[in-house]
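Re: that backbone. Tokens:
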């Protein structure tokens, strides 16, 4: 039993240290995965599209860095910026979303998704580390 608890303690300790040491790589991978999700965004309803739409709606953001990220996608050439970027769903037409100048007035432009998510993750890291340390100390 003591060996099992020691093993769990070491796993928690290694995970916490690895998360701290590799936090920059985590941010880089997160950025590249978000850009890939935008690039692969299409008109079919699948889990990846729903995830992008949900994140943009809930966090009131559009694109990875800003709404112009969508201009580099195939989806934009066909349909414009996704409706999930709209500030007001009732005041956001497809014609507005196809024109970047008009879209700028209709979509979220102030909040950058990547910055918002990474800053939230960084602010919660201390809580996660504290919980991990508390669990590890409780085991001892």
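Recovered sequence:
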């Amino acid at each position: 039993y003591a060996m099992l608890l020691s093993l769990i303690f070491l796993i928690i300790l290694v995970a916490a240290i690895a998360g701290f040491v590799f936090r920059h790589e985590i941010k880089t991978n997160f950025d590249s995965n978000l850009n890939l999700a935008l690039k692969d965004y299409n008109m079919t309803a699948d889990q990846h599209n729903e995830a992008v739409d949900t994140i943009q709606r809930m966090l009131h953001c559009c694109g990875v860095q800003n709404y112009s990220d969508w201009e580099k996608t195939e989806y934009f050439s066909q349909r414009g910026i996704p409706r999930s970027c709209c500030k007001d769903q009732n005041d956001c037409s497809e014609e507005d979303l196809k024109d970047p100048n008009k879209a700028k007035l209709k979509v979220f432009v102030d909040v950058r998704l990547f910055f918002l998510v990474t800053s939230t993750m960084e602010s919660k890291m201390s809580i996660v580390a504290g919980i991990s340390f508390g669990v590890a100390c409780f085991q001892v």
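The chain has a mean pLDDT of 83. Residues 113-139 form the longest helix (27 residues).
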